[in-house]
């Protein structure tokens, strides 16, 4: 699907606030609400918009200890539904270089993180090494 300027405008407003009504998006973009509605339906149908979600305050929900973990080993031995469904694992990317994957993790505190790392290494024999980086300041975090 090829996106035009109007599609990009609609997406931009939805990214900023997915609770905006079709009418409000129409007012902001100068597009009729019925057209906005049809375009959003098409963006969803074509897979441009995968889902509508929300951004939480990390501190308020007890996930203010953020860590990035690089993982090397045999991903086919440790990546599965259990890993991908783990409550502390927020994002997983396959990467190039010395490591195979990078995880974005969120925890209540350092103790929770420590427990996770110990269990992760114990349960995943396909992991040859990890390197963790603790976030000290969040400058920008999108959904």
CATH superfamily of the largest domain, by name, is: Lrp/AsnC effector binding domain/regulation of amino acid metabolism (RAM) domain
Structural class by sheet pairing and helices: alpha+beta
Structural Rg: 20 Å
Query: Roughly how much helix do the residues carry, as a percent range?
Result: 25-40%
Unreliable spans: none
Biggest sheet: strand arrangement = 2-3-1-4
CATH class of the largest domain: Alpha Beta
**Average pLDDT across residues?**
93
Output the number of helix runs: 6
Number of strands: 4
The SSE order reads HHHEHHEEHE
Number of domains: 2
CATH architecture annotation name of the largest domain: 2-Layer Sandwich
For the record, give the distance between the C-alpha atoms at the N and C termini, rounded to a whole number.
23 Å
Strand content: 15-25%
Largest sheet: 4 strands, antiparallel
Basic shape: elongated
Could you tell me the CATH topology label of the largest domain.
Alpha-Beta Plaits
Describe the structure.
This protein has 143 residues and is an alpha+beta fold. The chain folds into 2 domains: 5-45, Winged helix-like DNA-binding domain superfamily/Winged helix DNA-binding domain (Arc Repressor Mutant, subunit A, Orthogonal Bundle); 65-134, Lrp/AsnC effector binding domain/regulation of amino acid metabolism (RAM) domain (Alpha-Beta Plaits, 2-Layer Sandwich). The protein has 6 helices and 4 strands; from the N terminus they run H-H-H-E-H-H-E-E-H-E. The protein has helices at residues 5-16, 22-29, 33-45, 75-78, 81-84, 110-123, and strands at residues 65-73, 89-94, 101-107, 127-134. It has a 4-stranded antiparallel sheet. A hairpin with a 6-residue loop joins strand 2 and strand 3. Helix 2 (22-29) packs across helix 3 (33-45). The protein is elongated and about 55 Å long.
């Amino acid at each position: 699907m090829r996106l035009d300027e109007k599609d990009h405008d609609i997406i931009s407003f939805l990214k900023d606030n997915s609770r905006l009504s079709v009418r409000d998006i129409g007012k902001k973009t100068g597009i009729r609400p019925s057209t906005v509605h049809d375009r959003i339906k098409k963006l969803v149908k074509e897979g441009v918009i995968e889902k509508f979600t929300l951004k939480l305050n990390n501190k308020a929900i007890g996930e203010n200890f953020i860590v990035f973990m690089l993982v090397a080993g045999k991903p086919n031995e440790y990546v599965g539904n259990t890993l991908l469904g783990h409550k502390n694992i927020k994002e997983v990317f396959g990467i190039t270089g010395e490591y195979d994957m990078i995880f974005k993790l969120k925890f209540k505190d350092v103790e929770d993180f420590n427990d996770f790392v110990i269990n992760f290494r114990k349960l995943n024999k396909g992991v040859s090494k990890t390197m963790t980086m603790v976030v000290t300041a969040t400058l920008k975090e999108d959904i």
